Amino acid sequence: MNPIIDLRSDTITKPTPQMRQAMADATVGDDVFGEDPTVNQLQKKVIKLCGKEAALFVPSGTMSNQIAINAHTQPGDEVICDYGSHIFNYEGGGPALLSGVQVHPLQGQRGVITAEQIKAVIRPADHHYAKSKLIELENTHNRAGGAIFPLDEILKIKKLADKHQLKMHLDGARLWNAHIATGISMAAWCDPFDSISLCFSKGLGAPIGSILVGSSEFIDCAHRYRKIYGGGMRQVGIIAAAALYALDHHIERLKDDHKRAYQLALKLSDLGATVDLDAAQTNIVIADFTKMGRSAQEISSDLEKMGLLALAISPTRIRFVTHLDLNDEHISNAMTILEKVLS
Ligand SMILES: Cc1ncc(COP(=O)(O)O)c(C=O)c1O
Questions:
Q1: Peptide bond before 282: cis, by omega within 30 degrees of 0?
Q2: Which of 69, 82, 89, 90 to mutate to test the pocket of ligand 1 (most atoms within 8 A of CB)?
Q3: Which of 9, 62, 88 most suits a substitution to test ligand 1, by most atoms within 8 Å of the C-beta?
Q4: What atom in ligand 1 is closest to the CA of residue 202?
């Protein structure tokens, strides 16, 4: 049996020996007291990279998004986002449960909701309505197959947000991928937003950790929510060291993940699956098998028998994600398996 090729997610990567060494060597302190030098170094580095005033290291992307929603809103407010967004689909109803807010999802195209669409749903000042308070965007967009949210549309949304005094939060779990795919700096991507959540445990290959970035006032408020959510960690420099290592060594290489994902997208399309090739801009490929008359579950189970793991995300669609633990040979073997199962 060939070794397993795991294309289910970019979160399945294991820390490299060098990353583990950096973790073992980390200088640590009690981060709840703000005394962990490695966490402080990481926060400073990300502040500089993103051109914001402050940052807060948190355990997960979900906690980071939920803290941001909590810090920007009051119960009864409304959050405008895309229908396929992570905060609406995969965070356990957190906005309602933790912040008491109502989510107003809009049907985007490849995860992109436009300024025009948002303008149409901003609530007038009338006591019948929830208060529109926050616009949440996702870049790159997970459910839209890693598609990039174009910066010019974000800038139009920012103008609208300013006019209506709405806050803007970015779920940038994979913003690194958008940065590498476009050459647009992290600071330029972050500039229009009041808060940005970035993950180290996806394409960057760290075992744990996300970071929330924004103004000093916002992060001060977020800090309190992190405590309330139980996300205050102690000698967590051991983990921050992995994130620092990833920032230094694993950003540029994302272009290899993107190239390999596109190869897979082309192969799947050649074999008869429906793939939005224009959406395959980064490290995620979503293929629809309706035309082939077989269910996603059936195909993923056949792939698994041959050593290829991929995630059936609906009765007709399978997600394939490239990442740090895969090389060109894995992709070439994956394509051979796809040929055998789909031909
Ligand atoms: C776009 C996006 N946002 C947020 C998250 C949540 O991250 P975590 O699993 O660290 O909570 C994910 C996880 O895959 C994601 O894909």
A1: no
A2: 90
A3: 62
A4: 14
| Helix, strand, coil percentages in the chain from 3-state DSSP, rounded to 5 | 45, 20, 40
User: For residues 72 and 106, what is the distance between their CA atoms, to the nearest angstrom?
Assistant: 20
Task: For residue 25, give the 3-state DSSP assignment.
Answer: coil
Q: Residue 196: helix, strand or coil by DSSP?
A: strand
Atom of ligand 1 nearest to the CA of 9: 14
Q: Walk along the chain (343 residues) in steps of 10 and give the mean pLDDT of each run.
A: 88 98 98 98 98 98 98 98 98 98 97 98 96 98 96 98 98 98 98 98 98 98 98 98 98 98 98 95 97 96 97 97 98 98 95
Q: How many helices (H) and strands (E) does the chain have?
A: 14, 13
DSSP SS3 for 34 = coil
| Residue 3, pLDDT score | 76
Q: Is the pTM of this model over 0.85?
A: yes
SS3 265: helix
CA distance 5 to 326: 8
User: Rounded CA gap, 200 and 207, in Å?
Assistant: 8
Quick one: which of 226, 206, 213 has its CA closest to 66?
226
d(CA 140, CA 55): 20
